Amino acid sequence: MSLNLQRQTSQTENPAQVDMMPMLQVRDLVRNYAPSFQLCVSSLELRKGQTLCLLGPTGSGKSTLLKLIAGLDGADSGEILIQEQPLVTPRSSLAVRRKVAMVFQRPQLLTGTVLKNVTYGLRVRGLAKHHQSEVSRILNDLRLLELSERRADRLSGGQQQLVAIARALVLKPELLILDEPTANLDPAHVALVEMVIKQVQQEQGTTILWATHNLFQTRRISDRTAFLLNGKQIEEGETDVVLTRPEDSRTADFVEGRMIF
Amino acid sequence: MNWGELWPILALSAQVSGIAVLISAVIGIPVGTWLGLTNARLRAVMRVLTHTGMALPPVVVGLLIYLLLSRSGPWGELGWLFSVQAMIFAQVILAIPFVVGITMNSVSAIPSDLALQLRGLGASDWQVRTSVLREASPGILLAVAAAVGRSISEVGAVLIVGGNIEDKTRVMTTAIVLETGQGNFEFALVLGGFLLIAAFGVNALILLLQRSQRLA
How does pLDDT run across B61-88, given as a tens digit for each residue? Predict the structure, then answer.
């Protein structure tokens, strides 16, 4: 299988929806984890409507970086700006955090129905009653409508992942953070999820930060790609450039499958 | 056998155990929740302490409370000895380790990632705590059921601090002891039957509440 898979339409090819104001800026971010792991990201910038893939092997710090950007953990130094507003600490930034929704690799769902889970974020904002049609549409798009009254904990792992994606999409976040959201899905559902997320992005101008270790997916979905290795940002740039003409030899080793641990 | 004595005994049992469980829940659920969310080392220490509390011999608790509340004791001025208040106090001491311990275990069993993921959907700290508490609610209901069981069936402590005074501090368990001692087995068995029905009723109600929580 070649890396030159056909790309779906990305937001950069729809300039009308691309805003010049940066949606996300990350500068000189450092987070130390005992005993020996340090996340170190020098600079990331993402404009409205763009998709940035965080590419890197397992343990490279992708999830750690995503949690920091979602405001779920605090950095030791550096800054994160969402629409030029600093994300100071997890406690003082509810309004900023609510511009962001995050999907985790291993979803944890609430006891109760699929519908209860999908509307959770709307309920905590007091908006559940006003977004019923949007909820139905997302459930339908992700093939969950017929399961909406089923208990979420009785669903398969893949279906639970779809519920986790749906509960983020119904919030219409300005920044959607996805941590390997398709890792537990079969190829048909991977395609479905990519299609639905791209559709939502085109309609709403959503900015997307998507962590994956899948090069094919990176090429399909992203405008820009950042490569992380051992907690360090190695390279960042347009996806085509990073995947085909990387500046750093370590990026080239990963992309061409020569990196062996 | 005087059947007219039955209803005051049942009513006082319900009053004493009901208030004791209520106080235990009001104090024990928040404490247990906080412990369930705190660091694992403190939780391990508290687990040992609460499990010890669950195994406290009621007669020893009764003896200590008797000494505390007797006229020459430190709390003698309250005048609670041989009163309903003393019985409630004893039952709270006996029931609260169950509420704290089981609540703590239920809350700590909820995956920590759930709180993180709810926060990632825009929930405030307070909303996250409420949601986690709701997830742990079947376990918390179990804690309340254990407290009801402990307090309604307890005899040693309430006998010592209540004195089993007719129409004043006589509850089902102490009445059973008295009636058995006097050879009134029929009355004692009827009281025992009511005790079993009460225990069954409370547990059935809690089971229904747990079921409705799962289906919500």
Answer: 999 999 999 989 999 999 999 999 999 9
B212 touches A at CB < 8 Å: no
**Contact of B122 with A94, CB cutoff 8 Å:** yes
The pTM of the full predicted model, rounded to 2 decimals, is: 0.79
Q: What are phi and psi of A172, to 5 degrees?
A: 45, 55
Q: What is the pLDDT of residues B101-113, one digit of tens each?
A: 999 999 999 998 9
CB burial string B135-173: b at 16+ within 10 A, e below: bbbbbbbbbbbbbbbbbbebbbbbbbbbbbeeeebbbbb
| Interface contact flag, A90 B114, Cβ < 8 Å | no
What percentage of chain B reaches a pLDDT higher than 70?
97
At residue A236, what are phi and psi to the nearest 5 degrees? -145, 135
Domains in chain B, ordered, with CATH? 3-215 (1.10.3720.10)
Residue B120: list chain A partners with CB under 8 A.
70, 72, 100-102, 104, 177
Q: Inter-chain contact B122–A110, Cβ cutoff 8 Å? A: no
Residue A232 distance to chain B (closest CA, Å): 24
| Helix (H) and strand (E) counts in chain A | 10, 10
Q: What is the ipTM of this complex?
A: 0.85
The per-residue pLDDT for range B142-178, each reduced to its tens digit, is 999 999 999 999 998 999 999 999 889 999 999 999 9
Q: Please give the pLDDT value at position A259.
A: 73
Name the closest residue on chain B to residue A93, using Cα atoms.
B124
Give the residue on A whose Cα is nearest the Cα of B138: A111
Tell me how far apart the alpha carbons of residues A223 and A225 are, in angstroms, rounded to a whole number: 7
Helix axes B112-119, B125-135, angle to 10 degrees: 140
What residue has token string 């030791």? A76
- Cα dihedral sign for B192, B198, B200, B203? negative
Which among B117, B127, B135 has CB closest to A104?
A: B117
Task: Give tens-digit pLDDT for A163-210.
Answer: 999 999 999 999 999 999 998 899 999 999 999 999 999 999 999 999
B61 in contact with A, Cβ within 8 Å: no
- For the beta sheet containing A224-229, the strands, ordered from the edge strand earlier in sequence to the opposite edge, are A85-86, A77-82, A22-33, A37-47, A232-238, A224-229, A51-55, A207-212, A175-179, A100-103
- Across the interface, whether the CB atoms of B113 and A106 are under 8 A apart is answered yes
A124: contact with B, CB 8 A cutoff: yes
CA pair distance B121, B201, nearest whole angstrom:
40
Contact with chain A for residue B179, Cβ under 8 A: no
